[in-house]
Amino acid sequence: MLRKILTPLFISILLATFTYCGPTQETKDLQGKAKQIIGALPEKMPGSENDTAELISLGKKLYFEKKLSLNETQSCNSCHNVEGKGAGVDNLPTSPGAFGKNGDRNSPTVLNAGFHFVQFWDGRAADLKAQAKGPILNPVEMAMPSEKEVLQRLNADAEYPALFAKAYPNEKTPVTYENLAGAIAAFERTLVTFSRFDDFINGDYKAISQAEQEGFKSFMAAGCTSCHSGNLLGGNSFRKMGQVNEYKTNDLGLYNVTKKAEDKYFFKVPSLRNIALTGPYFHDGQVKTLEEAVKKMAYHQLGMNLSEDETKKIVTFLGTLSDKNRAN
């Protein structure tokens, strides 16, 4: 009797073992497409090979330093929070500056920013170092009146002169605005995130669920990869906001930098990495939910009206792009 019971049980276990011993061909094909169209994020950002521990440590201290704002109330981290599960943003439509006035654009995440081809929504800074120089002197943001005033504060501090000397040991005058920006950039180059989607690309077929795999298929089928491709899923080109159907905005985007008529309403395509953590969305921060953002993007950029089901599938996939240490 016992033998009769155990034999079918053993067969069931054996069948289950063979059934789940590896990915289906469909999953393998999907991994191949993910690797080809997206690709895993590199472990280190460009330029980080020259960053010393002393430089990164100084940069981190400066990133959290409120003395870099005129009334000493605001640091880089105020708008680009990286503490705990912070996704490099403040999750506000637009950010208040040191004196309470809000900027006119949504604060993009600083996570993985060093992989982007340019910085800011309008690309006005070429790299992290150039970007770091801007907010400190911006009258709406940190509102410091001049580089000279910034350096006076740093030189008067009990710790900074020695920290700059350690970070820049070969320089006679290490406390410079250029070096301040360089140090902040070095710290920001450490903010690389790794997601379950990277694990999937790298061969772990169990890293994302069947529903998430279906979402990736929907993402590709809808044409999202026409803008959101490469290992950042964006961050590598400018596109017109309202490419197919007009998106109403008074912000002229790239035109404000180039003054070329053909650049009106062009913005840097945001990276979709950590997108589930960085709402609200778009350059104006006017879209509250990821579902709404997906539907609006499909309509304005691709001329599509996505169904609720397809929207939900894509949003499910986008959740796999969150940093494993920050995702809930």
Automatic annotation (TrEMBL):
The keyword Signal applies. The lineage of its organism: Bacteria, Pseudomonadati, Spirochaetota, Spirochaetia, Leptospirales. Heme c 2 binds at residues 224, 227-228, 297. SUPFAM superfamilies: Cytochrome c. InterPro entries: Cyt_c-like_dom, Cyt_c-like_dom_sf, Cytochrome_c_Peroxidase/MauG, Di-haem_cyt_c_peroxidsae, MauG/Cytc_peroxidase. This is Cytochrome-c peroxidase. Residues 1-21 form the signal peptide. Binds 2 heme groups. Binds 2 heme groups per subunit. One of its GO terms (cellular component) is periplasmic space. Keywords: Heme, Iron, Metal-binding, Oxidoreductase, Periplasm, Peroxidase, Signal. Residues 54-171, 210-322 form the Cytochrome c domain. It is found in: Periplasm. Its cofactor is heme. Heme c 1 binds at residues 76, 79-80. Coiled coil: none annotated. It holds the Pfam family Cytochrom_C. GO terms for molecular function: cytochrome-c peroxidase activity; electron transfer activity; heme binding; metal ion binding. PANTHER family: CYTOCHROME C PEROXIDASE-RELATED.
